[in-house]
Amino acid sequence: xxxxxxxxxxxxxxxxxxxxxxxxxxxxxxxxxxxxxxxxxxxxxxxxxxxxxxxxxxxxxxxxxxxxxxxxxxxxxxxxxxxxxxxxxxxxxxxxxxxxxxxxxxxxxxxxxxxxxxxxxxxxxxxxxxxxxxxxxxxxxxxxxxxxxxxxxxxxxxxxxxxxxxxxxxxxxxxxxxxxxxxxxxxxxxxxxxxxxxxxxxxxxxxxxxx
Amino acid sequence: xxxxxxxxxxxxxxxxxxxxxxxxxxxxxxxxxxxxxxxxxxxxxxxxxxxxxxxxxxxxxxxxxxxxxxxxxxxxxxxxxxxxxxxxxxxxxxxxxxxxxxxxxxxxxxxxxxxxxxxxxxxxxxxxxxxxxxxxxxxxxxxxxxxxxxxxxxxxxxxxxxxxxxxxxxxxxxxxxxxxxxxxxxxxxxxxxxxxxxxxxxxxxxxxxxx
Lengths: 211, 211
Hints:
- The complex is a heterodimer.
- Chain A is built from 4 helices and 12 strands.
- Chain A is of the alpha+beta class.
- Chain A has a domain at 44-54 and 61-195: outer membrane lipoprotein receptor (LolB), chain A.
- In chain A, strands 1-8-9-10-11-12-2-3-4-5-6-7 form a 12-stranded antiparallel beta sheet.
- The radius of gyration of chain A is 18 Å and the shape is globular.
- Chain B is α+β, with helices and mostly antiparallel strands.
- Chain B has a single domain (33-208), classed as outer membrane lipoprotein receptor (LolB), chain A.
- Chain B contains 2 helices and 13 strands, in the order αββββββαβββββββ.
- Chain B has a 13-stranded antiparallel beta sheet, covered by helices on one side.
- Residues 11-20 of chain B have low confidence and may be disordered.
- Classes of the chains: A alpha+beta, B alpha+beta.
- The interface between A and B is medium-sized, with 30 and 28 residues.
């Protein structure tokens, strides 16, 4: 019994430790980018469960929500919250549609440059295909023994209002995105952790249509 | 005599009109009012006692023009001081306000939302909802069958607080212009809140998120 507890403790400790491990500057940035783009170019669909943690310094407990995401090339994203409430966001062809408890609304993002940029960046982060554009973001490339970390600092002030930076954590094994952390200027953050990822499994186009 | 009677009737009708013009119809007629000083013995604000923090699914709607869903975190920082943080479902903070002894403090506000009128409306709505400055004010108490109604005047605005058993606040009216309905109580804290403006189609609906 004691042995089982120790094993469980060790598993939890090492799991957390892979994220807690100190990140150092990435040795081979070019190699990482090449590999990242190669893996992303072969990723046509992606399905995953996610856990979202919103941390507010003023609250003693984080706000947790769970859901599922579906991605299909090009630029089709279904982001569905299932717990503790149901809320669905679909990004498709420059439009965002929302189903909020049966009430559907759609917005065209083409008129709002900042929103479009934020959504582009989040979509690219989820599929693990960061477009390196130093006119819009400053980049830091880091790594530890298990993960690569790319941190993007937006240059445009309107985008800075929403986030100080966005951190994308890639597995060193298969270059899958493990976590995304959006930092706000205040120190509050949103952390998304991805589980049960399925790559290149068939996803119907209907998944990206909200009625 | 006839002229005097006409003037007298006119005066009465004006008084009735003044009272009824400003009083929601379903509360009429108001009779047998008793003057009082509002205190913790006869008034309990919705979020006090052991209240620490709550998270609400929140919808902000303006007629058919928009219906925006997000999360609102409400926290009591110290007795009578509250922090209200509104964020998108994906975690971006849109505003962070404090209400209390320092008045209305803006900790964070997106530039796009920085409109004087909007801020004033939010400030007034939260002032009504939190009702933390009501004790100490002069008021009139009316009996309405099993309910109790407290009428008071603050900043030239007539406010009505409708109480059920154990001082539980279920309705707040600012004249005929704003109605706040509190329901689905759990441990004396409201699980659902509806803030409806009647002079323009602004509506805010809050539903407590269950853990």
